[in-house]
Design a protein that fits this description.
The chain is α+β, with helices and mostly antiparallel strands. It has helices at about 1-20, 40, 130-135, 150-155; strands spanning about 45-50, 55-65, 70-75, 85-90, 95, 145.
Length: about 160
């Protein structure tokens, strides 16, 4: 009988020891995450077209089972969410910019046809003039805005996205 207790104790100790020596899950270091964006901050970003006209805002991000983002749901039209229409657009067709949108009230003396090229990027790197390169972004965890090449009318003509289907 004593032999059974000793055997059970040795086997139990061996099982506990193997669990104690198991490797913990690997954590991602902070430096590996440099240049990534928080999805919670991308939702809510204003979406502009190539003419710097606001066409909506990102309401949601849709991803596949592997975790890749496939589409962005953009809210178009409405006022404060009332009367807003949702459309889903391919995420890879969107561009993101770290630079603020140039406003129409800015003292820009060049005519609209001679605007400087857009400073959009699909990564976290910023582009633009040397003066904009000196201005540091206050938070690197999300872009300033999204750019999608369509007008409000184009988005309104797209099929409405519904979560129930």
């Amino acid at each position: 009988m004593l032999l059974k207790y000793i055997t059970a104790g040795v086997v139990g100790s061996a099982l506990l020891a193997t669990a104690a020596f198991a490797e913990p899950p690997a954590a991602i270091s902070q430096s590996d995450l440099h240049g990534t964006w928080r999805a919670s901050k991308v939702v809510g970003l204003s979406v502009y077209n190539d003419n710097n006209e606001k066409i909506g805002a990102i309401n949601d991000l849709l991803m596949d089972k592997g975790g890749s983002i496939k589409a962005a749901v953009i809210g178009v039209g409405g006022f404060l969410g009332v009367g807003e229409r949702l459309v889903a657009v391919s995420f890879d067709k969107m561009k993101f910019s770290d630079e603020p949108v140039s406003s129409a009230t800015a003292s820009n003396t060049s005519p609209p046809g001679n605007r400087p090229p857009s400073t959009t990027t699909t990564g976290s790197a910023t582009t633009g003039s040397p003066s904009s390169a000196n201005a540091s972004k206050s938070n690197p965890w999300y872009p300033d805005h999204a750019v999608f090449n369509a007008s409000k009318d184009d988005l309104n003509k797209m099929a409405e996205f519904k979560y129930s289907e």
